[in-house]
Amino acid sequence: MRLTLPDGSGWFDLLHVEHLNATHQDEYWDLRDELIEKRRAELPAPGPDPANPAQMLPAPAVRLRRADIRQLEDLVASWVVQGTSFAGVLPWGPDSRAAMPLQAWNALRGEMEKDGNHFDALNGVAPKATASPAPTGTAGSADSSAAGTLSPLPEPAGEPSGTPQG
To answer: What is the residue-level pLDDT of the chain in tens, covering all 166 positions?
Structure first.
């Protein structure tokens, strides 16, 4: 898939999101977990509530910093960017961002962050389902109504009772 900058000044050939696999996701999640645990270790341990020492305060929220997010973006870009018109970008590494104009990086990051694209897939977001017409004459119920609508499914059987009938 080719991403061309709006002003035509350059392009990126990107791996289509469908070509990412579970190994990519595992590596992404491992790095994310490592970064979160690193930040968690920097936070103070939860302690007693000064207003009620019998109660413990909750652990402070862990937030990734911009430098952490940059590592995640670089990991994904190293898989996704397959070709580019910008010299010095590939192979993707720590200096790749500096080898391209800011608008090129912003366009690339925006494409990877689009709904349903690379970051959604790696974070486990399933593609949005599209509505399709209901099939006729398939499993579930027969098309036996005069108007061609599906007849209702039979009611499920009730729970079996442990009490003998009779």
So the answer is: 999 999 999 999 999 999 999 999 999 999 999 999 999 999 988 888 888 888 988 888 999 999 999 999 999 999 999 999 999 999 999 899 999 999 999 999 999 999 889 999 999 997 766 666 666 655 554 444 455 555 454 555 555 445 455 4
Q: What range defines the domain where residue 33 resides?
A: 2-45+57-122
Per-residue CA distances from 62 to 41, 54, 57, 65, 118 (Å): 10, 24, 15, 10, 24
How many domains in the chain? 1
Residue 20 lies in a domain: yes
Q: Is 142 domain-assigned?
A: no
pTM of the predicted structure, to 2 decimals: 0.71
